[in-house]
Sequence to fold (198 residues):
Amino acid sequence: MASEGLKTDARWRVAILDDHERSRGALRAAIWAAGGEVVGEALRCADALPLVRRGTPDVAVFAVGLPDGDGVEVARQVIDAGCPVVLFTSHTSLELVDRARAAGVMSYLLKPLRSAELAPVLDLAVARFRETLALRRSLEERKIVERAKGRLMARYQLSEDEAFRRLRRAAMDSRRPMVDIAKALLVSESVASDVPAD
Fold:
């Protein structure tokens, strides 16, 4: 989620959500020692989303039990907002692991923190999250191309291969990605269908 315009030499920009000062201090020290930067800290679930929006971290580390709620539930909201979350907890119950997985949590750090574990866990969490976003984007783009292909097939009685070739040719001729051509076609079809007949 780190902003494109922000230049930093930090390995990762990290937000911390934990109500225990000792835990936050251990995380802070381990992040700095590994070449990271702490962009903000919060103590309550209610502050998690504002913290992430304000700090634009690459990854967030959340405690589970917080004074005003459940770290796993707020993790789901932060993940949906585009930031990977690693849980920081002393609990390892199967129920917690299942809830964390369902929420989209990328990984775990166990309390008390062993500093040597931090860097590989955060590196993997950031990399996996980026892969997940790229996969999701690719699937969305494929759906758009398929819809555009379907419109061409219906309008011009083309085979699937012919419709695909037309989209590909238009992309090559205009030197634009095929998904952009597909979006433009769908928009023009939508506009054309909204124009009332005389």
Observations:
- The chain has two domains: 13-113, 136-193.
- The two ends are 49 Å apart (CA to CA).
- The chain has a mean pLDDT of 91.
